[in-house]
Amino acid sequence: MMVPVLGQGEYAERAAKLAATAGLPNQASVEDRFQLQLDAEGLALHWCGESVAPLRIDFSHGKAAYRAQHTSWRNEALAKAVGVKQGKRPVVLDLTAGLARDAFMLASVGCPIYLAERHPVVRLLLADGIQRGQQLDSEVGEACRRMLLLPLRDVTLQQQLMQQHFGIADVAYADPMYPKTGKRKAQVKKDMQMFQQLVGEDNDADQLMPLAEQYGCQRIVVKRPGDAPNLDQRQPNYVLGSKKHRFDIYLRNSND
Question: Which residues does the record give as S-adenosyl-L-methionine binding sites (predicted)?
Fold first, then answer.
């Protein structure tokens, strides 16, 4: 699905550059299902013909921002799953960054985070949101400065960049899209409905396990719905549960 990057007036030139960088069109079409529009507030995804608010990654507002700014790592199952402890903040590689809500929470409790995202539209939204967040002189800005969006999946290049920034990742984290049915499907928020319509399902999610192993991380954490099968049919070393999900934890060294 091709999504144009559009901008009016002073934002037209920058929108054209973003489109060229991502290999996306720079002109609208009557057939567009989605459009990226750049304005003074940043880049936003519009769902054409739907009464849904534009989707913008803004780490200083919204539910994700509230969660990150008003919670302790002791109350976050994800933080415990990746190995956050008193005095320990592992470097985390998020292989399925998406809207970076989990990544931002981890960054907010002090973890350096690398973000990997293959969808070109989501990458543009992420880059825009992180860049705006890093300019803030606040706790949000500090958290965003712990976040680095990696280039597309060239493991060697990514590891070179890691060595130049926060060091090689200790933990690989993945939250692949999983089909929602019944009551769970009805509970999906409008912004996530838009996101899911854009990116579709992760039909190759099982490939995330061998990909994670290429980075040599000591720990791999996979977020799954409680009733979902194990990723790649692999049995985790142990499982950490939460109200809505479980975290399957795979250890390279069983003593970790």
Answer: 101-102, 117-118, 175
Domains in the chain, CATH or no CATH each? 5-47 (no CATH), 62-251 (3.40.50.150)
The C-alpha atoms of residue 216 and residue 73 are separated, in whole angstroms, by 25
% of the chain with per-residue pLDDT over 90:
72
The answer to pTM > 0.85 is yes
Rounded to 10°, the helix 101-108/62-69 angle is 20
- Rounded to whole angstroms, the Cα distance separating 76 from 47 reads 32
Determine whether 9 is exposed, middle or buried from the number of CB atoms within 10 Å of its CB (0-12, 13-18, 19+): exposed
pLDDT digit string, tens, across residues 144-172:
999 999 987 688 889 999 999 999 999 99
Residues placed in the known binding site? 101-102, 117-118, 175
| Annotation: binding site for S-adenosyl-L-methionine | 101-102, 117-118, 175
Residue 181 confidence (pLDDT) above 60: no
